[in-house]
Amino acid sequence: MPTTHHTRMLILGSGPAGLSAAIYAARAGMKPIVVQGLQPGGQLTITTDVENYPGFAEVIQGPWLMEQMTAQAVHVGTTMIWDTIVDVDVSQRPFKLTGDGGDVYLAETLVIATGAQAKWLGVEGEQELGGKGVSACATCDGFFYRGKKVVVIGGGNTAVEEALYLTNHSDDVTLIHRRDSLRAEKILQDRLFANPKIKVLWNKKVARFVAGEGNAGLVGVDLIDTETGEASHEATDGGFVAIGHSPATELFRGKLPLDADGYLEVTPGTSLTAIPGIFAAGDVTDKIYRQAVTAAGMGCMAALDAERFLAEAEYHAMVDA
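^ Thioredoxin reductase, sequence as received from the core. Prediction below:
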């Protein structure tokens, strides 16, 4: 039988942003509820080696880190619920959200931390070699390819920025683009073409990511020329798919302002959305940094912003009574 849950703070998403918001809110006595969503733990649960999260001298595993964050949130007073929200009513407070099993959530404040997913090519070997040479984040994984050959697939700002970043670790970076010109901003293109560590393969699409013998990891990519249909092969140690991200904001389309790429808009320097009492944190609103540590910081901001919002609302209610 469906249940109605009441909370001072409802958090959608259980990645670094959502769990950090929960930890701060719980410690402030707000008794937050986290609705974990389709991917509990967020993108870090499908990330193997994590070497850039502060506080750990040795490489740690993404799923383990999220288990620890979850345990900490629960320890300080967070309620974790495995559910997926299918409908939201943000026209008045308390905000009303409905889960796919019929449970209703009434929340005085709402933190949206539903994240974003990398777009993938959908070709053979891509999924199988994830974490074994194929990645969608050069900032996260580029360090593991020091002195090795890498390729970047894409033609927009993200791809060019990833290629430029990877030159910090590799002297052999190849950008693969399916067209004969890039979509990236001109200043980024100028930097790319001026960098002697980067070469560009034009009019090429990836047909397959190729594993070494015994599935030892990525050894190359099979390519198809988009004009002639000619097949070729490019040897590489690492392949970075950089064709953009899709923020999980469909629930809020038409209810909260989104930018041209579908990310939630917030007041700069804060987590405040256009509706008082609703806050956004992490990759759902951040298309620039997209790091676990920045998402965690934004989760902290959202909890503090929500706490201040409630304190002010309660004060005004008392004065106006």
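The CA atoms of residues 72 and 151 lie 38 Å apart.
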